[in-house]
Design brief:
By secondary structure, the protein is of the alpha+beta class. The protein is built from 10 helices and 15 strands.
Amino acid sequence: MRRPSWHELQAIKTLAEQRSFRHAAERLGLKRSSLSHLVKGLEHNLGVQLFQRTTRSVALTEAGQQLLTRLAPLLDQMDEVLNDVSARRQQHYGTLRISASDAAISLLLTQVIPAFSAQYPAIELDLAAQGALVDITAEGFDAGIRLIEDVPQDMVAIPLGEPLTFVTVASKAYLAGHPPLHHPLDLHQQQCIRQRLPGGKRYRWEYQRQEEALEIDVPGTLTLDSNALMAEAAINHMGIAYLPLPHARAGLQSGQLVELLAEWRVQSAGIALWFPPNRHQSMALRLFINALKTHLPYYR
């Protein structure tokens, strides 16, 4: 059996991560036909089928998953070796894939990524805006960013900020045409902008004042799955919204939104970057973690 080349092994890893010949070929700088020929040649050489192919998707076979499980850490270690060798020239390289919410990616784009990319121009950042909490290992991500309480307990979590406050907001025009709101239970007589969670369930709005805590399945004819869109809908007088404060701040400061039930505010523990504790950390991830701690106000 011919020993596979480094190029072939990297191609297998990339195809497994992208689950698409087209996307993997673009990432590798190959023609789709060339990548297909490479994979078929490697499968013939190894004597096993590594991928199940359909017209719409590509998935690892059991043999392919077994190969990738043992191969990926070796490729990552080789990347680290090469990065260490090139450290004198400060030419760190590689690809860092992160699954995060759109709000978390916005935070990174404004506070971390400009400086990080300027310092490490050869490191490619692949950020996927995903509402659902995914299995980052199975999906080929190096890390994820989510609310701390949603991070699996066996994972390493690095906080990215202070606790996150949730606020209830509406426009003045909406409030002028609806009954006054004095207590969370008054929401049952309002038009609310409801939120659909990644798992499909509607989010129950949470309130707490001293020892009294409530969870309310609010009424409403509009349901969205994006905080940014819910803020926009509230600004456009479509109802009352329940939002993380960063998504409501601009509307509150401009006067387009008014906060309601302020004495009933609740807090989340905030968001965190998370990754498996026993998984080999790429040089790109380690450098990115250092950048988070350098540029985020939480660590200053």
